[in-house]
Amino acid sequence: MNTDRLVRTFQELVSIDSPSFDERRMADELAGRLKELGFAVSEDGAGEYYGGTAGNLYAYREGTLPGEPLLFSTHMDTVEPARGKRAVLRGDGRIESGGDTVLGADCMAGTAALLEALTELKEEGRDCRSLELLFFIGEERHLRGSAVFDFSRVRAKESYILDLSGPLGRAANQAPTLVDFRIAVRGKAAHAGFAPEKGVHAIAAASRALARMELGRVGQDMTVNIGHIEGGVKATNIVPDACFLMGEVRSYSHERALAQMKNIEELFREEAEKAGGSCEVSYTVPVHAYQVPESHPAVSRFRRACEKLGLPGALEPTFGGSDQSNLSLHGIQGLVLASAMEQVHSCGEYTTVSGLETVAELVKLLMQDRE
């Protein structure tokens, strides 16, 4: 393996600012590299749809091995703080950020490894499967890019998403539904000193509902959280007439997640109306639950590759979201692979040279698998 080239590619990708919906430079860089590797590359209109600078990239290259194409995917955006990133290589092979931004190993570690695997296959003249590649925008904003991609153009039925932290040789084959909700409790303003009885205290009503909620881990396969609350005005003598809450529900069961959301809505409406106010609830479902059976070809292929590299080939569920959720909705089943990214979404994010090498080797073997 050309380790120097792999590390250099990773550093070059990290140096490109690509926060969500500002992925133009990253898209241009990847498109240029993929064309040099013999891929036909196109870009969709997702950027225009969201008011961003770039769309999703789709790439295809015919293979020399029989069988349907295999799909590999990463995302082009990084979470903030993401401007001015740099990858600092330490003497022990650890690669860190400069300390004031994220590193961007999520998702540039998987992207660099993917590019290195493709480059080596081309240089060595190795046979491989036909390949489809997808690079999505806005993944960090609840999978926005893949939510509007036209999957009818994809031929593959088997996918590998390079977007999971944790030990290498591990893959997620199950993920939850995520319900993202907003609640507005409406009351009535009044002077808190002269006539509090004429008001309807929206914060108090919301608090009573919140006190009745099950928060944290609910049963074996669900979590519920309220992450943000605000209400009233910056004055102590006014009964607040509004309180706003934001939260989420996650569950491996799509039906249970929606049922829990209905319970939350009913609870807040009950407390708001009991106080003489009202309640408005809205929610979206940006991530849908899926599970890939262990008998699926993607699992068998993954385990064969891991065995050759001395990796565990372990499957486990994740409670995080990835673009695989939207692929699954369109009949493309697959795994989210551990991709040498640690402490993601923090300025302490890091990867390692050996980790990048292992991911590149794994991807290369998956592309060459003949079964």
Percentage of residues in DSSP E strands: 25-35%
β-strand number:
17
Number of domain units: 2
- The residue-averaged pLDDT reads 97
Return the string of H and E elements.
Answer: HHEHEEEEHEHEEEHEEEHEEHEHEEH
How many helices in DSSP terms? 10
Summing up helix and strand content along with how strands pair, one would put the structural category as: alpha+beta
Commentary on this structure:
It is a single chain. The protein is of the alpha+beta class. It folds into two domains: 3-175 and 289-368, 3-Layer(aba) Sandwich (Aminopeptidase), CATH 3.40.630; 177-287, Alpha-Beta Plaits. 33% of the residues lie in helices and 26% in strands. The strands form three sheets. Strands 1, 2, 3, 6, 7, 8, 14, 15 and 16 form a nine-stranded mixed β-sheet that branches. A five-stranded antiparallel β-sheet has the order 10-11-12-9-13, covered by helices on one side. The protein has a three-stranded antiparallel β-sheet with strand order 4-5-17. Helix 4 packs across helix 10, helix 6 (202-212) crosses helix 7 and helix 8 packs across helix 10 (353-368). The chain is elongated. The mean pLDDT is 97.
Name a few traits of the molecule.
Alpha-Beta Plaits; elongated; Aminopeptidase; nine-stranded mixed sheet; 17 strands; five-stranded antiparallel sheet; 371 residues; 2 domains
